[in-house]
Amino acid sequence: MQTQACQDLDRAHHLHPFTDFKALGEQGSRVITHAQGVYVHDSEGHRILDGMAGLWCVNLGYGRRELVEAAAVQMTELPYYNTFFNTTHPPVARLAEKLCALAPPHINHVFFTGSGSEANDTVLRMVRRYWALKGKPEKQWIIGRENGYHGSTVAGMSLGGMAPMHDQGGPCVPGITHVRQPYWFGEGQDQSPEAFGRACAAALEEKILELGEDKVAAFIAEPVQGAGGAIMPPASYWPAVKAVLAKYDILLIADEVICGFGRLGAWFGSQHFGLAPDLMPIAKGLSSGYLPIGGVLVGDRVADTLIEEGGEFCHGFTYSGHPTCAAVALKNLELLEAEGIVERVRDDLGPYLAERWAELGDHPLVGEARSLGLMGALELIDPATEERFDKALSAGNLCRDICFATGLVMRSVGDTMIIAPPLVITRDEIDELVCLARQALNETARRLA
Ligand code: PLP
């Protein structure tokens, strides 16, 4: 199909996620037609290095025949059956076992969903149910973080702390509040990163005391904030938060939808930071995005209570544990494991990206270049003032569009540029990514001068 014909159909009938419908209608969509390895190709014949692994999900890269074959075999045998009413099937049982083997030792159960947002709806219900079963139904409050992202369903957006989402669509789910994020570059530069990390944990404690320590059910956070801008917390942050949660007996929900499955050089971000969460929502890299599947890894404390004391848990989705999605996810995990991809991110590619990415810190437009594993961010600043650009200039979006035209997908969150490439990227491709990012920065600087 020609570019124009595809754009016309799209314009006429398709409402895109997180998109200004009218503006897109005027501009026309980019048409992506195929992909291989770390590259996507558009209908105009351009090859573009996908620095975002789709939406942080194509961990294994594009074009893996093994995943296609796993889907074809499963679709031939049993394309769909549900896991309601005491039924199961081999792929979902095997996937559950595999996930629990990879997860920290206190996690031995998984509840499947179709997406990360559904996983977060599930944790909301699970934690409130857990405390009710424990005879503490007043423990209802869930504390999230400003600028955290936990999905786009009503529960997901309520747990998240994205103000523009809260401003649309009426009231959020009651009993959810937010505390400050550990975003040192954006909000903490008047202190050392370590002092700032501790101050953020102290803010959590203050919020707990304000709500009443016996009224708080759980704290939800991404180990590293993704959609908020690839925000790696100061080293002091997680140890201090862990201590606060332990002091008041509050559950930890570590949202692993982005950090899970190798992104930070560990199977789960929680392992990188030494966390032992009670619940871990997962999705995205679970199937490398080849098919939609998510879930919640449930620690023994919550799972044992739900199993032994809960009776029927009145919650679930038509596609919970979908056999084809489960078969593809299982094959994806097997390949990540067999090819040593998580270890390679930890020992080779992560440190290599860190070294090459840090070089961009010298660019006049960059106030900070940071990375962890295969996730990175550049903070854009106006070289004339060394402060943020005037918002009206939309420097981040300009840089993003220039990147795309240069042959690199880099996402903008305000004036923070972020990358999270497929985990199969090579050193040479990292060199290319850094080179394209520098070219795009040069062109952005030229246009803003
Ligand atoms: N949680 C986190 C940390 C995410 O980044 C996302 C999506 O970007 C979600 C949850 C929601 O996942 P989904 O888009 O699959 O519903």
From TrEMBL:
One of its GO terms (molecular function) is transaminase activity. Its cofactor is pyridoxal 5'-phosphate. It comes from the Bacteria. InterPro entries: Aminotrans_3, Aminotrans_3_PPA_site, PyrdxlP-dep_Trfase, PyrdxlP-dep_Trfase_major, PyrdxlP-dep_Trfase_small. Keywords: Aminotransferase, Pyridoxal phosphate, Transferase. Belongs to the class-III pyridoxal-phosphate-dependent aminotransferase family. This is Aspartate aminotransferase family protein. It comes from Halomonas saccharevitans. The lineage of its organism: Bacteria, Pseudomonadati, Pseudomonadota, Gammaproteobacteria, Oceanospirillales.
